[in-house]
Structure formats: structure tokens, C-alpha cells
Amino acid sequence: MRLHAGNNVVGHFRPPQALFPCYGSQGILTRMRVLIVDDHLELAETIAAGLRQEGMAIDLALDGQQALEQATVYDYHVIVLDRDLPLMHGDEVCRALIKHGCRARILMLTASATIADRVDGLSLGADDYLTKPFAFAELVARIRALARRAHPAVPPVLTHDDLSLSPAEHTAWRGGRQLDLSPKEMAVLELLLAARGAVVSAEELLERAWDDATDPFTNTVKVTISRLRRKLGEPPVIETVPHVGYRI
């Protein structure tokens, strides 16, 4: 399976650096979590690798049944669903997701570019449709549009006192000093700033900034918060709320 990069078809690509925020159940900006459903393992892993470079939490499913199982476990923002799947056709997966009240936006993929197929896919309840091969930049743009469709616009830069973060530019500043943050540190800081003073639990941070390969009993959130505090410097801005979570 091929991917277009810009106007060229390439086998390997390096997507442009950007971050793609989404909104959680409370209407606040959260790190996007996406499920990629495609039985072409190499293509699925290539897409996932590119989106993970952008700071997104990505899970994979290689057949329709696995996709449904994943969707019942995790609260995805967007599901990128291939139509031609083994065990359970993508159309049936889409119907089942809609029937059971799945809140994720559904972007269907297909190798067929006919108008009839696009109409059929959208009539099933899918939110958007994309044919293969496709430009990676277009896939990102469509995912981004789906994520914000039902939510109000937010400021392009998140701020708190002398601290600011631009998700689109993947940069953070404090007191005029640019912060050297890792992708996970950036993701955690974005979640905390977006909460606007509300407490964010360690479980939510783990779910939004990492993927299902992460051990739910790990102390990775605590370690990341500790590193982030050191980089943010004084005075402290991240508060620990015992037995609840963290807030700015």
C-alpha cells in the first residue's frame, strides 16, 4: 500500500512536525487518541509511527472484531476504519459502533474511489471518507477536522501566568525562556494547561498521552511530572492533589 507525500507517491515518509489536539468529554482540550483499523500491518504501522511522532496516542486493530473490542475499552476521539477488513467487514464495524453509541468520529478508508462507495460509507454513519492511496497530510487534516467538528474553537496558545504552550508549533515558554520538553512532557503540560485549573487524574494523563502498550500500573506519569517540574523551574506551577491527580 502506498502513501502520497504532497504530490509524490513514496514508500517511506517523515510527516511534518505538528501536534493535533482534541477535546474530551468535558469540552476541554486533550491529547488525541486514535484507533487505526487496517489489516495491512505495514501500512497501519507506518501511519501509526507518523502520528506518534506528532504526539498522538495511537492504537492498532488488524480486523473488525478487534476494532470493536478496542472501542469498548478505550474512549477514542477518532477511529480510522478501513472498509475491507477480515472477520468483520468495515461496514458492519461502523454500524455496530454507531448502534452502541460510540462517541468517536469515524473516518472510513477504502481502495475504491467511486461516488457510490463514498455515499454508501457515509450513509452507514461514518463522518468522513478517504480513498487509498492518500496523502499523509490530507489524512492528518481530516482527522484534525473531525476532532474539532462538534466543539468550540480554542485559543491557539494555552497560557498560565508566564507559562505558554503552542500545540501547533510544539513549543512551550516560561518567562521568555523556551522549554526543552520531550513529546510526553509536552503532552502532559498541554493536558494540564487545557484543564484550566481543574484536576487531571494520573489515569487520564496516561490514557491521553500514552497508548495501550503502556502498563496501567506503571509510574511513568509520576516520573514525567517530576521531570516536567524540574524543567519548568521556580516558582512551582504543577500542584499534586493527593489521591486525585494534578493541576496547574
Automatic annotation (TrEMBL):
DNA-binding residues (ranges): 155-248
SUPFAM superfamilies: C-terminal effector domain of the bipartite response regulators (SSF46894), CheY-like (SSF52172)
Ranges for domain Response regulatory: 33-147
Keywords: DNA-binding, Phosphoprotein
Keyword Protein biosynthesis: no
Modified residues (4-aspartylphosphate): 82
Ranges where the OmpR/PhoB-type domain occurs: 155-248
InterPro entries tied to this protein: CheY-like_superfamily, OmpR/PhoB-type_DNA-bd, Sig_transdc_resp-reg_C-effctor, Sig_transdc_resp-reg_receiver, WalR-like, WH-like_DNA-bd_sf
Any coiled-coil regions, as ranges: none
A Pfam family: Response_reg
Record protein name field: Response regulator transcription factor
Record organism: Streptomyces shaanxiensis
